[in-house]
TrEMBL record, chain A:
Organism this protein belongs to: Micromonospora mirobrigensis
Domain of life assignment: Bacteria
Keyword Metal-binding: yes
Residue ranges that the Swiss-Prot or TrEMBL entry lists as coiled coil: none
Protein name: TatD DNase family protein
UniProtKB/TrEMBL annotation, chain B:
Gene source species: Micromonospora mirobrigensis
UniProt name for this protein: Sugar phosphate isomerase/epimerase
Amino acid sequence: MRIFDPHIHMTSRTTDDYERMAAAGVRAVVEPAFWLGQPRTGPESFADYFDSLIGWEPFRAGQFGVRHHATIALNPKEANDPRCRPVLDLLPRWLDKDGVVAVGEIGYDSMTPAEDEAFAAQLALAVAHDLPALVHSPHRDKARGVQRSLAVVAESGIDPGRVVIDHLNEVTVKLVRDTGVWLGFSIYPDTKMSPPRMVELLRAYGTERMLVNSAADWGRSDPLLTRATGEAMLAAGFTDDDVDRVLWRNPVEFYGQSGRLELTDLDVTAVDPTTGNSILRGGE
Amino acid sequence: MEPERLRAALDGVPGPEWLDEALRRVAAEPTTIARHFAAAGRHCGRAELPDPPGWTADEAARVLLLTALPAGHADAATALYRHGDAAEKQAVLRALPLLPVGAAGVPLLHDALRTNDTRLVAAALGPYAGHLDQAAWRQGVLKCVFMGVPLAAVADLDERADGELATMLAGLAAERAAAGRPMPADATDLLDRLASTDQLSPTEA
């Protein structure tokens, strides 16, 4: 089973996770820029964070044979802090980089006017840089947040086929299914979505434009739940081809629209025997 | 390494027209280098060049873009390094010996040698490392051994290796031996050469 996790915050994960992911078949990931738990207080913290997403983290992933890409944005929660707003002016620098395959995570947290403004401005950046957009859907008041996100997407003029709305569930999937936008589902140990529930949604809505991710981060989460979902699909009678479509070809098609996915030579082991030990303890 | 040789090597890669146009634009409008520099790999590819050995297409293209600047090479190299992803940083480091920057790029070498990215550490110890003071250079060489970076990456290794480096390598070898872990063969060979040329004092041997 080859797996592309289209949404995982590897910065918050250990090398044990990379090893287990690689052993489970995860060969490529996309790491969206998001909130780090601790609020940031100015644009320079974001600059260092964005740099790590195109510098150190891809190197770290490469030690384990995992290809790493990123999405870059000012996240909705911190868009509300006026000290962080200047991040919007810095973004174009990263949106030109090879490893950046979308603008994201953008969207809503509390649906404030400041979030409206940052969301629209960053959809315009996606269009200007010819990049797809990753839209986070809010945890609170989710259904109305998804409807409002769809309206903002429509108003922006971006091709809906270049947008994914993430963290959907049984209620919100209905709102998005027929809009032409891609559908993202985050499989969590006990909240957003579980493997058995995901299998039911795939039965009901099919596999087209469906993206399954672990969204693993610094909270209680599990980077192997993509694999668990693939196994649950097989146990429920889906074919190997269905699983490959959902866990590999769909994310490759979606992020491939950036023209920047780099998946060549993935079968070759990325751990150079002469240098591959450097990660183990900051150089062993 | 002459820029002409890199340019000739890039004739066979994808996007030679893109590169020609990018070089013209950078020569005429130096501020356009940032976007061209970021996009070079997408247009020229990242394949290893048959000649010169040890160069990839994106790296060579980026080095050429820097050499195409009419002036201000030191400031441009510094900005592109500071704002670059790992591949861009590596290209800046490899461009330094080809640019009229004197010792102005030395802070970039120090930055690269502080990272744990083996590609950047190796690139920092190329020919431009002649500008590094001996203490920083020795630390860089020892870091290569520590990280498993082949010492072939280090320019002028035998000319510059001294008794102090031998002492540091011998210390690492002793720690590795005590831990039952091997030293890289190229480091052991270097230590042997230093001992045989008598640069190692008797007490250190």
